[in-house]
Amino acid sequence: SVLFSKQHRHLMKGVDRANSVAWNPHKMLVAGLQCSALLLKDTTNLLKQCHSANATYLFQQDKFYDVNLDVGDKSVQCSRKVDCLKLWLMWKAVGSDGLEERVDKAFIHVRYLVEQMKKREGFHLLGEPEFVNVCFWYIPPSLRGKEGTADYQDRLAKVAPVIKERMMKQGTMMVGYQPLGNRVNFFRVIVFSPLVSQRDLDFFLNEIERLGNDL
């Protein structure tokens, strides 16, 4: 999706070396679910070779038109919905400039969110974001300055699940968390909705603090 952005399309440099690329416009471009495309260099009708069931009651080979148009025999689902129509309609509605604006706005929001996190005690980034995924720990006051203690990691691992439980029960937000390797549970927020404002991001940070301050 960043290919729509003149400012950020460099992130896809080298993609021409890939044999296949999966693209999900329902993510960054916020097309209706589901909207996915698989782009292949292969020109040997690979999808049909992999997925075709040769169902003669559906895909007769002696039709008067080019049977390659029967794309259903190339798909695992056979009768899947027309994903590309969602992308086409959205593209017609907002244009290439509108899609570029969505991509650029996502990066602006991420920069703002990270800048605000760095100004607040208790937010600890796992690393500088390279895209629009922001991974962070919230360190409640009771754990600050105690990174060297034996039970620090165990206690930190319980913070995100409790905050998630509270936000769900109070109906204020929905934000995911996960562990990764030797890194205990951390929040992973992805900012790309064109409806999100900086005011929403401020609320997000305030809410994390409110829900986790007593842990």
The main pleated sheet reads as:
4 strands, antiparallel
Q: What is the CATH architecture term of the largest domain? A: Alpha-Beta Complex
Percentage beta strand: 5-15%
**Helix amount:** 25-40%
Structure classification = alpha+beta
Instruction: Say how many strands there are.
Output: 6
Number of helices: 5
Top CATH class of the largest domain? Alpha Beta
Span of the ends, CA to CA = 39 Å
Q: H/E element string? A: EEHHEEHHEEH
Quaternary status of these chains? single chain
Strand sequence of the main sheet, in spatial order?
3-4-6-5
Provide a descriptive summary of the structure in words.
Homodimer. GO terms for molecular function: pyridoxal phosphate binding; sulfinoalanine decarboxylase activity. The protein is of the alpha+beta class and 215 residues long. The protein folds into two domains: 2-94, Type I PLP-dependent aspartate aminotransferase-like (Major domain) (Aspartate Aminotransferase, domain 2, 3-Layer(aba) Sandwich); 102-212, Aspartate Aminotransferase, domain 1. The protein is built from five helices and six strands. Helix 2 packs across helix 5. The longest helix is centred in the middle third of the chain and has 37 residues, at 83-119. The radius of gyration is 23 Å and the shape is elongated.
